[in-house]
Amino acid sequence: MLLKKITYQSEVKINEETILLKLRKAKERGHTKLDWLDSWHTFSFDSYYDPAYMHYGDIRVINDDIVAPEGGFPTHAHSNMEILTYVLEGELAHKDSLGNGSSIKPGELQYMCAGTGIKHSEFNPSSENLVRLLQIWIVPNKEGPNPHYEQKAFDIKNGGGLKLIASPDGRENTIAINQDVYLYAAKLNAKEKVQHKLANNRKIWLQMAEGHLECNKTEMFGGDGAAIKDTSLINLQSLTQSHLLLFDLPS
Fold this sequence. Notes:
Largest sheet: 8 strands, mixed
Structural class: mainly beta
Number of domains: 1
Number of helices: 0
Shape: globular
Radius of gyration: 17 Å
CATH class: Mainly Beta
CATH architecture: Sandwich
Strand order of the largest sheet: 1-2-21-18-23-16-14-15
Helix content: under 10%
Number of strands: 23
């Protein structure tokens, strides 16, 4: 599969440091609308194709999905992909060919290492309420591991700063994934400021779930994403209550 790099089109000057930042506005994403699913695609997915947004580093998919009551994804197969599901609202039921059956709620992260192959289904068990989730696919650093399933709850507090929830080595009781990617979640209060330091040769994808903030002087709203590189520091200032995911990955 040919993967095309994102072209950075904006520069932000902070303390004489030039930072490259590409804003992916929510309304510019791909969109799939079915009777049971309303899905926005940050990167090319299924019938949505944008050669400028095939991936970002090892992040292949970020889908912002709203599933109607009693709707869901029927049983389907995956292989050689790291799949993370982060529920924002409601509850998502899961069943797979490994015999796992679970319910994923806000504050929990579900992980499937598809490896040599796995089949699963996901559906909204509620007859009244929507479920909203971010589904993330990350290209693994090796092919053919045994399929694996894991689910963990994390204490992601309002005003609690960035919380590490997935990592390559499972540090800090996070979910260990087969890739050099560190995933953080945060719920920021209005006027809260947070910084994230980058090691050399690292870059960031920031995905806004909800709210309004400034990232290195660039405004972002719910559904927006940003590719950021050539900096050692990410400065976030939330202007309202905000909910976000931050991916730290190799440049």
